[in-house]
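ok new one. same drill as before - structure tokens go in, u give me an amino acid for every spot. 130 of them this time. try not to just spam alanines like last time pls lmao
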């Protein structure tokens, strides 16, 4: 049985949601969770579960922000001043914390994206040239 990563063929991003449901989940690449959370929060405040759902949705169910890493990351981001948190009620009536990106968080997002792009380009160069 061939898996998605066994083929060098391009992935069709227009695949149905049924197909995406069966795609293998990959571990979150080290160092990317904070960047992805910051990017997701750029569109507006979200609570933790909604952040995780948005990451899963945008990655077509390939990446998943696990609860055990998401909430410690959000806590660290609060301490760094990259996000603020405010108590609220979710769509389902549960008490939650809504996280909002700060000015420092926007600056950090730019730094993290630049570093990620630089590392990704270096990896791509090695894959092409080695």
């Amino acid at each position: 049985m061939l898996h998605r990563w066994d083929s060098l063929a391009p992935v069709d991003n227009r695949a149905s949601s049924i197909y995406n449901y069966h795609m293998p989940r990959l571990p979150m690449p080290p160092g990317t969770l904070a960047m992805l959370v910051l990017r997701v929060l750029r569109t507006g405040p979200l609570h933790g579960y909604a952040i995780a759902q948005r990451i899963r949705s945008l990655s077509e169910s390939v990446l998943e922000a696990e609860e055990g890493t998401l909430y410690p990351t959000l806590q660290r981001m609060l301490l760094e001043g990259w996000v603020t948190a405010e108590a609220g009620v979710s769509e389902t009536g549960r008490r939650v914390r809504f996280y909002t990106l700060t000015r420092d968080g926007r600056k950090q997002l730019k730094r993290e994206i630049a570093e990620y792009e630089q590392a990704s380009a270096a990896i791509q160069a090695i894959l092409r040239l080695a």
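The CA atoms of residues 45 and 100 lie 5 Å apart. and btw The longest helix spans residues 103-129.
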